[in-house]
Amino acid sequence: TVGCVAVDSSGNLAAATSTGGLVNKMAGRIGDTPIIGAGTYANSLCAVSATGKGEAIIRATIGRDVAALMEYKGLSLEKAAAYVVQECAPVGTVGLVAVSANGQVTMPFNTNGMFRACANEDGYTHVGIWQ
Amino acid sequence: MGWAIALHGGAGDIPRSMPPERREPREAALRHCLQIGVDAIKAGRSPLDVVELVVRELEDNPHFNAGRGSVLTSNGTVEMEACVMVGDTKKCGAVSGLTTVKNAVSLARLVMEKTPHIYLGFDGAEQFAKEQGVETLDASHFITPENVDRLKQAKEANKVQIDYTQPIQKVEEEDESASLPNGDSQIG
To answer: Given pLDDT bands bounded at 50, 70 and 90, which one contains residue B167?
Structure first.
């Protein structure tokens, strides 16, 4: 699964995700990617794109839960995303990338690796696979 | 406040023993796609344009599980899915069950912008793609030899695999600490 999230200097957010799904999935199986609030979500606070095992991501409403923790509990993007990835989905099933309206970036995962990259206006750039 | 961009190419059981010839092309692709996004956002493109542009590039790279390189169903076919969402309006579009559309993410954006709906799937999504004139290709374009092998392994083990999963071994040979022959992760 591939995905991208972006925020501009005015705080406008967007998310996109695309996938082929799971190897040996049943024909007709729908995964998390096209389910709004599961594998992909954006509102005025953050944009989220998830990857991993779709069934786990749908059950945990990963994308929407990150936004909801920010919206209702006032958590930062980093804390909201970390909580959702570590506490809401089984170990080994999910990773996500997210940005907030104020330019924060986070890329947590509970699998043993995630192909990921990020950059921001301050010149910070990161490309990684493992912790 | 400031712009920021993040992207992923899949998660899963990615072994640290992955050999350089498999790791480096993926890292290079991540850097390449990140730079495309950075250049676009610096040029004043909207975040929606940026995420579509970056995901199209990732879809076209056979090292990742989307577009060319999509993993296979139990029938040996591809069924691709994509989604876009805009934060301030919560407008969104999604597609599933695509077999011929070169860049599913762009069709998802068209669903958002050109229909009163959020989500189109299978025959309806393919028909909409034709009506919109998006680029389509024979399904064989999306199928790589590597993914044919992965399906064969998964069928033999009667398992599904996410983006990057280590090759499935027969139960009697399973050893979680064993290093992999090719070091590649075989999940989605």
So the answer is: low
Q: Which of B13, B78, B163 sits opposite A51 (nearest CB)?
A: B163
User: Would you say residue B173 has pLDDT above 60?
Assistant: no
Q: Identify the pLDDT of residue B39.
A: 98
Q: How far is B27 from chain A (nearest CA, A)?
A: 7
Residue B55's CB: how many other CB atoms inside 10 A? 32
User: pLDDT digit string (tens) for A21-67?
Assistant: 999 999 999 999 999 999 999 999 999 999 999 999 999 999 999 99
Q: Let me know: does B49 contact A4? Beta carbons within 8 Å.
A: no
How many Å apart are CA A61 and CA B143, to the nearest integer? 30
Q: What residues have CB less than 8 Å from B135, skipping those under 6 apart? A: B101, B102, B103
Report which of B136, B135, B143 is spatially closest to residue B78, judged by C-alpha positions: B143
Q: What are phi and psi of B180, to 5 degrees?
A: -90, 150
- Burial (CB < 10 A; 0-12, 13-18, 19+), residue A92, is middle
A120 contacts B71? CB cut-off 8 A: no
Contacts of A33 in chain B (CB under 8 A): 81-83, 94
